[in-house]
């Protein structure tokens, strides 16, 4: 049975698609997980300073343990010692040496032998081929060329180099598949924790219970159409608009509306209690390259909850156009929400759409690929 060495984001917190998949593979494979090595250099400012301090603490064993994604066994977690200036050739050489030494030591300690290398970040490209791995996988869940908060001048050429070096590329959308060589690119769509989101949960009690509610959970970042949301909150004063997640962009006048409520981030296990008690769940994204290539995890989670969904138009949501109310050309988003609200009774139909798209099902598909690669 092959062992996995995985480069991902920081383990714990709100689980990514990589964490969902790997947590299921942990039932049959041993895993060394390398926490994020980043994709941009730190900038002056409080937020980046805090992240640098936290990374420093983690590197030297001063941080706490991470929350489990589910009941799966936990991987061996490495907090890599890297210098976050990947655009400098000397830094790349130093980081490569440190990473390889750290990972080889962990592999020796845990007797890892038949290694499959899984890379989710292009900045890990220099490790590919240096661990005597049997095979290598690039799991691409985003269009890094369009992603906010990335040093594109550094990451883009790293991704091109990574694509040349790996044996298999896994992508989550058609738009991403078109970027890469066909012969070694395989589609692996996102899944959903269906049981978690479909099982009824009690009202969390921290947002207004009077009047209809439209809600969104996730990072409040550049890809949200804040101007459209402000217009919508103005047009629908009798509705409550609830946002669950960290605020990472300027939200402007939204904070001034009495019917708009920002609750801050919540653990992934708590999210069903929110979305199940909204009248309409929102996907209010901008129209840009990043959204064109995205396949948001919350889309399937919303569907599994049974809640009516109002969305702007982008490729991934069109797959579920029979179950999601999608904004038409120049249609006010307030009207989209109202149309979704009028269709709110078809919760079982929405749930049935994703009942067979669980993360366990996706992980079984991945298991077949991993076993095939291990046998080569």
Describe this structure in words.
The chain is globular and about 60 Å long. Helix 11 links the parallel strand 12 and strand 13 (325-326). Helix 1 (17-25) packs across helix 14 (359-375) and helix 10 (297-305) packs across helix 13. 36% of the residues lie in helices and 15% in strands. It folds into two domains: 3-191 and 358-375, Rossmann fold (3-Layer(aba) Sandwich), CATH 3.40.50; 194-354, Rossmann fold, CATH 3.40.50. A seven-stranded parallel β-sheet has the order 3-2-1-4-5-6-7, with helices on both faces. A six-stranded parallel β-sheet has the order 10-9-8-11-12-13. The chain contains 14 helices and 13 strands. With 376 residues, it is of the alpha/beta class.
Q: Which SSEs are present, and which pair or pack?
A:
Blueprint (H helix, E strand, L loop, with lengths): L2 E5 L9 H9 L5 E4 L11 H14 L16 E3 L10 H21 L5 E5 L15 E6 L11 H14 L2 E4 L2 H4 L7 E3 L6 H5 L14 E5 L8 H10 L4 E5 L15 E5 L6 H5 L4 E4 L5 H5 L3 H9 L2 E4 L3 H4 L6 E2 L6 H10 L4 H8 L4 H17 L1
- At CATH level 2, the architecture of the largest domain is 3-Layer(aba) Sandwich
Give unreliable regions as ranges. Answer: 40-56, 62-70
Give the topology string: H per helix, E per strand.
EHEHEHEEHEHEHEHEEHEHHEHEHHH
User: Could you give a short account of the major beta sheet?
Assistant: 7 strands, parallel
| Residue fraction in strands | 5-15%
* Fourth-tier CATH superfamily name of the largest domain: Glycogen Phosphorylase B
The number of strands is 13
């Amino acid at each position: 049975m092959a062992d996995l060495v995985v480069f991902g984001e920081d383990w714990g917190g709100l689980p990514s698609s990589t964490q969902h998949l790997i947590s299921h593979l942990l039932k049959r494979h041993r895993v060394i997980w390398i926490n994020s090595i980043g994709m941009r250099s730190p900038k002056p400012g409080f937020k980046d300073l805090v992240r640098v301090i936290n990374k420093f603490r983690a590197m030297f064993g001063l941080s706490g343990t991470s929350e489990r994604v589910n009941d799966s066994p936990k991987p061996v977690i490495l907090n890599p010692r890297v210098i976050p200036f990947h655009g400098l050739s000397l830094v790349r050489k130093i980081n490569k040496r440190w990473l390889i030494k750290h990972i080889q030591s962990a592999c020796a300690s845990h007797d890892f032998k038949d290694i499959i290398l899984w890379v989710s970040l292009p900045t890990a490209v220099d490790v590919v081929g240096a661990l005597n791995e049997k095979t290598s996988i690039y799991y691409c869940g985003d269009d890094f060329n369009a992603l906010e908060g990335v040093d594109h001048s550094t990451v883009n050429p790293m991704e091109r180099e990574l694509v040349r070096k790996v044996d298999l590329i896994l992508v989550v959308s058609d738009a991403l598949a078109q970027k890469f060589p066909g012969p070694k690119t395989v589609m692996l769509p996102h899944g959903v924790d269906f049981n978690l989101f479909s099982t009824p949960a009690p009202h969390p009690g921290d947002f207004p219970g009077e009047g209809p509610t439209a809600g969104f959970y996730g990072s409040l970042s550049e890809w949200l159409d804040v101007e459209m949301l402000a217009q919508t909150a103005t047009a629908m004063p009798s509705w409550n608009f609830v946002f669950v997640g960290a605020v990472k962009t300027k939200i402007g006048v939204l904070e001034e509306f009495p019917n708009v409520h920002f609750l801050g981030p919540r653990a992934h296990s708590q999210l069903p209690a929110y979305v199940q008690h909204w009248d309409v769940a929102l996907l209010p994204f901008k129209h840009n390259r990043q959204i064109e290539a995205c396949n948001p995890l919350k889309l399937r989670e919303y569907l599994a909850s049974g809640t009516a969904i109002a969305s702007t138009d982008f490729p991934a949501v069109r797959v579920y156009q029979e179950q999601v109310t999608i904004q038409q050309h120049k249609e006010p988003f307030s009207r989209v929400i109202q149309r979704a609200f009028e269709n709110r009774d078809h919760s079982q139909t929405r749930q049935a759409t994703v009942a067979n798209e669980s993360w366990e099902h996706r992980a079984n598909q991945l298991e077949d690929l991993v076993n095939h690669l291990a046998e080569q």
